[in-house]
Write a structure and sequence with these properties.
Length: about 325
C-alpha cells in the first residue's frame, strides 16, 4: 500500500511516498482501510523534530475509514464498521492498525471525510472549551488563528456556549470566514495591535480566556489581553514555541496559564468516547460545521505541509489515500 514517511527531520521535502506491506492487526487491534486522513499542525512538528518521534516513520495521527479486519479479543468493532481515530501515529497511509480502544464508531449521518477532519481538531476544541477552561455564557473569549482547523471549531463551539468571541487571523479573507461562523469582533493581527483592540472591545476589562495555538508571536499580546484572574490556554506553536517566561509576569493580574495536550484529556477509552459523543452531538445539532477547506492526494503530503505552514489553508485539510 501507499504510505508517506518522514525519512529524517527537516522541511516538507523530507516526506517521501513509499510502498509498504499492509499490516495485520495483533490482539486488541483493528485494521482500518482509510477513506480520508486529517492533516494537523502537529504533523509538521513530528516532521521537523520539534516533537521528536523515531524516524523514519509514517507520520499522521488522524483518519477515518472502514474496519477491514480485527485482532483477537476485539469486541468493540466488527469488520465493515465505519470508524475514526486520532492519536495513533501512522495515519499517512492507505490503511493502518490501531488499538481498538483508541477508535470510535462514526455515527450515521456523519461522512467519513467529516470524521477525518473533526476527530483531532474537534476533540481538541471539545476539551479546550468544556474541560481545560469552562466557557460560560457572557464570557469574552479571544481565539487566535480563528479561520484555521481548530480555530473554526472553537469559534462555533464558544458561540454555542453563549460567549462573545473575539477572533484573530492573518488576513481580511480569513477574518471574513470567522465572521461568517459567528465571531462578534475581528482583529487582523498582521496590522492591528491585538491587546489594544481587545481593551477597546471589552471596555478595558480584558477577556476571561485566550485560546492561543499560534505560540511565540502572540504570547505577549495574549497575556496583555486577559482580565484579572483570566486564563491563557497556550496549546500550540504555529509560529514557534513560546520562550521561557517568569511566573512574576502573571502576578500583575493573578493570571493562569495552562499548556494542555489533547491526549491527556482523552487518555482513557471512557474519556475518548465521552469527547467523541460531545463532538458528534454538536455536529448533529448543526451548531458546529466542519469546513474542509482543501484536499490533497496522500502522495502530495509535502504540498499539503507547505500550504499549512505557508498559512495558505483555511479550515481542515484532508489527504485522500
Ligand atoms: P491551523 O489550521 O490553525 O493552521 C495554523 C494557523 O496558524 C495558520 O493558518 C495561521 O493562520 C496561523 N499562524 C500564525 N502564525 C503562523 C506562522 N508563523 N506560521 C504558520 N501559521 C501561523 O492548524 P491546526 O488547526 O492543525 O492547529 C492549530 C494549532 O493548534 C496548532 O498550533 C496546533 O499545534 C495546535 N493543536 C494543539 C493540540 C493540543 O492538544 N495541544 C491539538 C490540536 C492542535 P493566520 O494566517 O490566520 O495567522
Amino acid at each position: 500500500m501507499l504510505a508517506v514517511q518522514a525519512v529524517h527531520t527537516g522541511g516538507p521535502e523530507v516526506l517521501k511516498a513509499v510502498e509498504v506491506e499492509v499490516p495485520s492487526p495483533a490482539a486488541g487491534q483493528i485494521l482500518i482501510k482509510h477513506h480520508a486522513i486529517g492533516l494537523n499542525y502537529i504533523d509538521t512538528y513530528h516532521r521537523s523534530g520539534l516533537y521528536p518521534v523515531k524516524l523514519p516513520a509514517v507520520i499522521g495521527l488522524e483518519a477515518a475509514g472502514v474496519v477491514e479486519a480485527i485482532g483477537e479479543t476485539v469486541t468493540r468493532f466488527r469488520p465493515g464498521d465505519r470508524v475514526a481515530y486520532n492519536g495513533t501515529l501512522g495515519a499517512y497511509a492507505q490503511a493502518a492498525v490501531v488499538p481498538a480502544d483508541r477508535a470510535v464508531k462514526v455515527p450515521d449521518g456523519v461522512s467519513l471525510e467529516t470524521a477525518a477532519a473533526a476527530m483531532l481538531k474537534g476533540m481538541t476544541a471539545e476539551f479546550l472549551v468544556r474541560r481545560c477552561f469552562h466557557v460560560k455564557p457572557g464570557d469574552h473569549v479571544l481565539i487566535h488563528a480563528a479561520a484555521g482547523g481548530v480555530g473554526q471549531i472553537l469559534v462555533q463551539w464558544c458561540k454555542a456556549l453563549g460567549a462573545t468571541v473575539i477572533a484573530t487571523a492573518g488576513s481580511k479573507a480569513k477574518l471574513a470566514v470567522a465572521r461568517d461562523l459567528g465571531a462578534d469582533h475581528l482583529i487582523d493581527y498582521s496590522d492591528e495591535d491585538i491587546a489594544a483592540r481587545v481593551a477597546e472591545i471589552t471596555s478595558g476589562q480584558g477577556v476571561a480566556v485566550v485560546y492561543d495555538g499560534v505560540g511565540k508571536d502572540t504570547w505577549d499580546a495574549s497575556l496583555k489581553s486577559l482580565s484579572r484572574r483570566g486564563t491563557l490556554v497556550t496549546f500550540g506553536n504555529a509560529s514557534g514555541p513560546v520562550p521561557p517566561f517568569a511566573p512574576l509576569d502573571l502576578g500583575a493580574k493573578s493570571l493562569f496559564v495552562t499548556r494542555p495536550r489533547l491526549f491527556d484529556y482523552i487518555a482513557t477509552t471512557e474519556e475518548l468516547d465521552e469527547s467523541a459523543a460531545a463532538l458528534f452531538a454538536l455536529l448533529a445539532s448543526g451548531a458546529v460545521k466542519i469546513d474542509i477547506g482543501q484536499t490533497f492526494p496522500l502522495a502530495q503530503a509535502r504540498a499539503a505541509h507547505e500550504a499549512l505552514e505557508g498559512r495558505k489553508t483555511t479550515g481542515a485539510t484532508l489527504l485522500v489515500p
